[in-house]
Amino acid sequence: MAGYTEGDEENLFRANKIQRFATTPTAEVVKNEKGMKKQKSTILSEILGLEDLVSLTVWRASVAELIGTAVLVFTLDTIVISTIQIETKTPNLVLSILAAIIITILIIATFPISGGHINPLVTFAALLTGLVSLSKAIIYVLAQCVGGIFGALALKAVVNSEIQQTFSLGGCTLTVVAPGPDGQSTVIGLETSQALWLEIICGFVFLFASVWMAFDHRQAKGIGRVSVFIIIGVVLGLLVYISTTVTATKGYTGAGLNPARCLGPAIVRGGHLWDGHWVFWVGPGIASVVFALYTKLIPPQLSHTLE
């Protein structure tokens, strides 16, 4: 064949030989792999918020959550007992108004330090919407629960045993045992399924109608922080009034809307306060999930949540 030489045959043979595969990765490949691992580690760290576990700022903020929740439980449960004890014609209305005032004041007091959660329901929602890390949420909820216990202990220290027994320290109840017409004890109250639905619906309305304004910095800036806090208090007061009025059932204290507030008296007083206690945790949990799903449906350009 024209132009074909013996040297060309040797070169062709070498070209067709199977070359050994390089098993040692290049420096560029190693660098990319390290970068990917570092990126995954960073994302996981951000989700868990591991740095919050050793952050003095977060732990100091949790103290505000603890004290704020303790004051909330003490004052709110005192209001519950007093409004029933004085036998006003509209105890539900009085309770709702006073609850709105107390909650507004406490949010204003704790917001600059911790964000003014003082409620696991708010912390659950903040976690699921990405506003706080998992570690920070756990620290906050633990602080709120401890605060609820301290508030119930403080209330127990200032009321006599008769009031403690009669009003169950103002705790959250679905049912109570009352004397029946034939002299035998009977259980009166609300069905567990009804109470759960009320907890879910009222919890979602609370987050949707008020707390979202605090999460959305555009709205908060537009109407003012204090106005937002007042709206939160008013909405919560209205929900307390609705949940206690719409059922009109003795033995049911209305939607808890704050698991820590329900937990404190249950631990300190015990007894029937544990009956159906899970409702006051599961309900807000479901409400938070539904609220978080709702926020995902909002177009990004319309969402202005705090970072």
Query: What kind of sheet is the major sheet?
Result: 2 strands, antiparallel
Number of helices: 12
Output the radius of gyration.
29 Å
How large is the share of residues in beta strands?
A: under 5%
| Unreliable runs | 1-6
Briefly note the structural class of the backbone: mainly alpha
Fraction of residues in helix? 55-70%
- Write the H/E string, N to C: HHHHHHHEEHHHHH
**Major sheet: order of its strands?**
1-2
Number of strands: 2
Gap between N and C termini: 76 Å
What is the arithmetic mean of pLDDT? 84
Shape: globular
What are its keywords?
307 residues, mainly alpha, two-stranded antiparallel sheet, 12 helices, 2 strands, 68% helix
Task: Report on the architecture of this protein.
The protein has 307 residues and is mainly alpha-helical. The chain is 68% helix and 3% strand. It contains twelve helices and two strands, in the order αααααααββααααα. The chain has helices at 6-16, 27-48, 56-85, 91-114, 120-128, 134-158, 161-167, 192-215, 217-223, 225-245, 259-269, 279-297, and strands spanning 175-179, 185-189. A two-stranded antiparallel ribbon has the order 1-2. β1 and β2 (185-189) form a beta hairpin. The longest helix has 30 residues, at 56-85. The chain crosses the membrane at residues 58-81, 93-111, 141-159, 195-215, 222-242, 278-297. GO terms for molecular function: channel activity. One of its GO terms (cellular component) is membrane. Pfam families: MIP.
